[in-house]
Protein: Membrane protein
Amino acid sequence: MKNLKYTVMVLIGGAMYGTMSSVVKLFHLRGYNAAELSFSQALLAAIFLGMCLLLSRGKESLGLSRNELMPLLVTGGAIGLTNFLYYQSVSYISASLAIVLLMQFTWFSILLEWAVFRKRPSVLELLTVFFILVGTVMAGNLFDAEISSFSWTGVMLALGSSFTYAVYIVANSRVGKNVDWLPKSTLIMAGSALAIFTVNAETIITDNHFGYEFLLIAVFLAVVGTTIPTALFAAGIPKIGAGISSILMTVELPVAVLCASIVLKEHTSPVQLAGILIMLAAIAAMNYYKSLKTRKAKQVCSI
Structure:
């Protein structure tokens, strides 16, 4: 029962992330742009987490060295750019296609670790990449005769967000390992806001819609899209393990497609559904195998 509680936490966090593409698409239709939406989300999330940090620690030191501070801010910059590019992509393409392309972070992460850290992918990982690509072609409806109507700008933005998401995941797994989740999350969100502002300073300052409605939207995005999922993941992932959590977090994909179908009335064909299932199965199988491998390695070390 205890593990079930933490499993549900991770599932809810992933589902919350899955609703964001449809929600942001709706806000785009109301005239808001990706720069102001992603910046306000990151800034308010940093403020909320910072307030929690101050309340929990008071005047106590964060215990961070200068060598830990900058890598965490840069890591935050990667997730900030991910949100900006992703939010920008849904103004060009459907929310369901955007989430399918974002899920390419799985194999981008494998390639990054190979290129940067010389960690060669296993046969299973290469097979996973193959099935993800097959699933992407199907789920993205790339066999459709209307292919020319696709916005390749939107596709490239979504793929760019997938790449920066992979950078974030790889960096996040290697920096700040000894830092508590709350100061780590606060610094990552601060770095996220800083990166988005640096790239879009002129748009944020001059072309904005700041007002009461926008404030409500920003608070909603910060709480539902960042703060609550971060807290749920921080509480649940350490209890059930990264491998199982990675499998559970793939719930983001079907939730995003379902949400786009209900909220935005986007049509999803049987071929697209089959592609999504292939992608989910490939990602889940790879993460399950990795979790078993890690568990066996720990058992060997404890003997």
